[in-house]
Amino acid sequence: MDKIFHFTKEKTTIKQEVTAGLTVFFAVVYIIAVNSSILAEGGVPRNPAILATILASALGSIFTGLYSNTPLVMIPGMGVNALFSYTIVNTMGLSWESALGAVLISGILFAIVAFTPLWRILMTSIPESLKTSITVGIGLFLALLGLQKSGVIIPSPTGFGTLGNLASMEVLAALLTFIIALFLYIRNVSGNFLLTILIGTIISFLFGVNSFDFNQNLSFSLTGYNEVFMKFSLKDIGTIPFWIASISFALVLIFSNMGVINAYVGEMLSSPNKFHKSFKANAVSALTCGFLGTSPTVTAAESAAGIAVGGKTGLTSVIAGLLFLLCIPIIPLVSLIPDLAVAPVFIIIGLLMVQNITKIDFSDYSEGIASFLTIILIPFTSDIVTGMGFGFIAYPLLKIISSAKRDISPALYIIALLFVLNFVFTILY
C-alpha cells in the first residue's frame, strides 16, 4: 500500500486516508439523486441514469486515485449536467442519445488537450476573472433551478418567473426542508447534503406530496441499464448543433477542471506534477461517461472535505469510489426521492459557487464587464454556453478598448473566435 500511495512520503496513514474517503463520500453522495434527476429532465431514463451516475463516479474516482495519487473525487459535474439536459437537449433539440455522443467527442477533445502541451498553453492563457465568473454564473443558475424545483418560483408569461403558491403543501415541504438543510450545513454536520435529501423525502411523504405503494417492486436489477449503456449516437455528427454541443462540453470541462484541480493540487498537495496527472485522469474519466450513459464527470469541489480532514493520497479517492459501488443495491430507493428534497442542495451549492465573486476585480472595467456579462447571462438565458461565449468575446474587445492588449494571449483570441463561430452557426441553424 505504501508503495502505491506513498503514505510515508505524504506523512499520512491508512486510517487517516480511510477517514477522509468516508468524509468526502458523504459530502458527494447526493450526486446520485441530483444528477439522475437532471438527466431525467433531458429524457434519460431515471433508474438507468442513477446506475450510470454511480458507475461514472466510482470508476472515475478509483482511476484518479490510482493514477494520480491525489484525493480528488470524480462525479458528474453540477452545471455540466444542466448543460446536457436544459441546453443541449431541451433548447438545441438534440436527442439524449446524440447528447451522449457529444459527451464522447468532448471527452476525446479534453483528452487531446490533457495529453499534449495544449494543457499548459491554456492554463496560462485564460484570465482568472473569466474562470471565476463561469463558476459564479453556474452557481446562480443552479440556485434558480433549486427555487424552481421547490415551487417557490414558477414560470411567468410576463417575466423570468413569479412567486409560487406559498400555501401549497409542496412549497411548504420544500421550505421546511431548506430550513433543515441550512441548519445542517451551518452546523457542519457530516453528510449534511445526504441527510437533507433523506429528510426532505420523508417530509414529502408526511406532507402528502409524495406517495409510496408498498406493493410495488423495489428489487434491484441490472437489466434496465442497457437503456443507456453504450447508447450514445453519432448520427448527428455531421450537423452544426452536434459540434456546438461537443465543443461547448469540452470548453466547460477543460476550464472548470483547470480551476478546481489547480486550487486543490497546487495549494494543498506536495508534487507539482500531480496537477498534470490529475488533469489527465479527469479527461479519461470524462471520456468514459459517453459509454456509461451520463453527463461528464469533473473534479468534485467537495473533494476539499476529504482534504480538510487529512486526505493526501489517492486512497481517499479509492475509498470513496468503492463506497459508490456499494450504493448499487439501493438504486430503487433513490428513485423515490422527489425534486423538493434535492432543491435545497441546488440552492446551497449555488451559494458556495457564488462566493467566488469576491475574487473578481469589478473596478477594472476591462475585467469586470466581461465577468458581469458571463455571470448574468448564464442564469438569465438558462444557457451556460451563451454566458461563457459573451464573456470570452467581450474580454479581448474590452482589453483592446482599454489599451491593454498585452493582457490578451494568442490562445484567448482563438477561443473568442470559436465562440463567435458558435453564435453564427446557432443563428444560421
Shape: globular
The count of strands amounts to 4
Largest sheet: 2 strands, antiparallel
Helix content: 55-70%
Strand order, sheet with most strands:
1-4
Instruction: Give the distance, in angstroms, between the N- and C-terminal Cα atoms.
Output: 55 Å
Instruction: Please compute the radius of gyration using only Cα atoms.
Output: 21 Å
| Mean pLDDT across every amino acid position | 86
Number of domains: 1
Describe the structure.
This protein has 429 residues and is mainly α. The protein has one domain. It contains 20 helices and four strands. The strands form two sheets. The protein has a two-stranded antiparallel ribbon. Strands 2-3 form a two-stranded antiparallel sheet. The longest helix has 29 residues. It is globular and about 60 Å long. The mean pLDDT is 86.
